[in-house]
Amino acid sequence: MPDLGARHHGAMTTSRRALLGGGLAGGALLLAGCTDADTPSAGPGSAATATPTAGASPSADLVVPDFDPEDWESVRAQFPLDPSVSQFAAFVLSPHTAQVDAAIDHHRRRLAFDTETALLAGIEQEAAVIDAAAAYTGGTPAQFALTDSTTMGIATMYGGLTLQPGDDVLSTTHDFYSTEASLRLLEQRTGATVRRVTLYDDPATASVDQLAGKLVRAITSRTRVVAITWVHSSTGVRLPIAEIGAAVADINRTRERPEQIVLCVDGVHGFAAVDVDLPDLGCDFLATGTHKWLFGPRGTGLVWSRDWGPLTEIIPSFSGPDGGLRLTPGGYHDFEHRWALDQAFAFHDRIGRSRVVARTVEQETQLKEGIAAIDGLRLVTPQDPEVSAGIVCLEVPSMLPGDAVARLRERGVVASATPYATSYLRLGPSIVTTPEQVDAAVEAVSFLA
Ligand SMILES: Cc1ncc(COP(=O)(O)O)c(C=O)c1O
Q1: Atom 16 in ligand 1: residue holding the nearest Cα
Q2: Which of 197, 225, 282, 367 maximizes the CB count within 10 A of its CB?
Q3: Residue percentage of the chain with pLDDT more than 70
Q4: First-to-final CA distance of the chain
């Protein structure tokens, strides 16, 4: 392990907790040395960043822009997005908040000025990021590994499992390319067999019982891994992970440890629309990028695990030998982005997870109801909130999804086309959109019919 090893251990713990204490609990206004008295009054879009002058020695303090978490306009003003269009594609690659950008700028300047000192300080900062992840999503810090993306997390899960010929991996036909390709590599590496079941033919009518039932009935005595996706970016269908996890746990109670099933989840699109702690979700491993639902720094993500035991690391760790540190891929990273991730958690934490979720679900419901009422369009995503989660897909007969995206852009609505063999038009409301923009989006979509 290189010099940078032994991160996050021993004496670090106390000081990093002290560091974080003023952050999440106290409003995330300071990382070090800055008091509330230094903070300008809150207001929509107010931005006071005490970053050092270029070329000067960077201050030890980071002051992040303040905002009013109770006021959605103030929340939205923290995104330096083009105000002339409505952003319904945040679930593809999220924009940074002003807070994340301030932190990136701060860490970049410190790295530029004295790279070695910044790198050493980064040991504590990385621990603060993990603490912030655990505080927001539930679980303990040791249950988190940091990655650069969902895809890196998915590869960490499926690349690290030990299987043998004859073992069965149960997956679905609805997963994103990153899961499909990682499972192909798992097959090649171990000789295990991957089976893919179709959980629904018509996504719009999917139900909890149908989704969980079809998957669980496909489990055999040889199944060792269930590999699924929380929210299908192809259709907007959300799988009932808790029900599936409970059924898997029942089966595992009848099996010896080596034959037990591990439930792995690509969780990238779930959090903005489901208010749940990771340990309660029901899976064993979950990989997610934090540059979609969390509006975190581009090039960041995490893996959560109930128990890291079944996984061997595929990239040597620079972080430590235990827990999630062992599964945190090593090599140096674009640290200014990774270290700024705690600001994304702090931003959401100040708003409140349940409020973020309620805001997303409220607009998603409004959008689906509006689209369902338009003759000539087909809503693909279920209207049932139990099996959907923010993403809204629709079919526009006689128009390619890419063309529909272009037409909507002309009307000031940013949407996306799903990157799957059967492609749909997709919109994702979030904390950057408003109910008024949803109404305008419904109207814009009606012109496609
Ligand atoms: C379900 C799902 N998983 C994984 C990814 C890839 O995410 P990342 O770019 O963070 O690797 C995507 C991309 O949008 C996705 O929709």
Answers
A1: 233
A2: 367
A3: 87
A4: 59
